[in-house]
Design brief:
This protein is mainly alpha-helical. Helix content is 64%, strand content 5%. Strands 1-2 form a two-stranded antiparallel sheet. The termini are far apart.
Length: 310
């Protein structure tokens, strides 16, 4: 049977984003519930994570071919260098260099910039706003807000400098981490962590949590979709809907416990004895050592430039 709509198909069956029904309420946008929006965002996270499992950059890109252990060590060196910078000019130059590195690595700038500037630095900026006030950071008032004992009080130049340092430092740090995660599949990152001496139990817990968090989120999304498919009429935010949320949470906890037991038994049946073996073989080449040397030189340049600008 063909699924192509024809002239005899009711209009209210053709609309999925609008609440069209035979009663005549055509063209009115359907308001989604908080739970539906949350699950929709969760499904989007799953799609992004599955997409991130594929190398974002091709093997022709220099950064994609670098050994993940070298990437992690280089990222640590750059993070330490960024943490030691105390001038806005040096941090701004560091951020421009990091953007250039992202472009060279083939990282898509749209998602990259959104993840950097719409999350951690934004929250960091909100947290450091009080530090810009004269009651926290005394100095030259550039934006008077009130008067106390005859002297203007408000935003100070020293406070703005301190806030700018914190925000730029956070942006640079998050950008460095995102470049590594964008250019390296998650499985190779975990393999590199194990090869660098991170405790095996920690790597295993992170691996299992990463995998089965998405499995449980998919199960919750399927439960909500099944309930929605059996519901006639608009969504009502009443006690019954709240009971459904509570029941879903309880069922998810029970499913997680049962799934953990089954996965552990399956691992034991396949020979698991406390050690996870990676399928990827890591080998450091001359190009990898050259990349590490470049990261060290860049870190030293940032530190030296900061010392000159102070």
């Amino acid at each position: 049977m063909s699924s192509t709509p024809n002239a005899t198909t009711p209009q209210w069956l053709l609309a999925s984003d609008f609440s069209m029904c035979p009663c005549g309420c055509i063209g009115r946008r359907r308001r989604r519930s908080f739970l539906e929006k949350s699950l929709s965002d969760g499904a989007h996270v799953i799609r992004q994570a599955v997409y991130a499992e594929q190398p974002v950059t091709g093997q022709s890109r220099p950064l994609a071919a670098v050994d993940p252990r070298i990437k992690l060590i280089s990222a640590l060196v750059l993070l330490v260098a960024v943490a030691t910078v105390h001038t806005l000019a040096a941090l701004a130059a560091a951020y421009l260099l990091i953007l250039g590195l992202a472009v060279a690595a083939g990282v898509p700038l749209g998602p990259f910039l959104r993840r950097v500037w719409l999350f951690v630095p934004l929250f960091t900026a909100i947290a450091v706003i009080p530090a810009t006030l004269s009651i926290v950071t005394p100095g030259d008032v550039v934006l008077p807000l009130w008067t106390w004992q005859g002297s203007p009080q408000g935003v100070t130049a020293q406070g703005l400098t301190s806030a700018g340092l914190v925000v730029l430092r956070a942006a640079c740090s998050v950008s460095i981490v995102l470049i590594v995660t964008f250019s390296t599949p998650w499985s190779r990152l975990l393999t590199a962590l194990g090869a660098l001496g991170v405790p095996r139990l920690f790597v295993m817990i992170v691996t299992m949590a990463y995998r089965y968090l998405f499995v449980l989120l998919t199960a919750v999304s399927d439960m909500f979709l099944a309930r929605k498919a059996r519901t006639i009429g608009p969504v009502v935010h009443d006690a019954q809907a709240r009971r459904f949320v509570g029941a879903t949470a309880a069922a998810t906890i029970g499913k997680a416990n049962h799934l953990a037991e089954e996965v552990h038994l399956a691992m034991l049946a396949r020979g698991y004895r406390g050690r996870m073996y990676a399928l990827d073989s890591l080998r450091i080449t001359g190009a990898d050592l050259l990349a590490l040397a470049g990261a060290v030189v860049l870190a030293l340049a940032l530190y030296g430039g900061d010392r000159v600008l102070r």
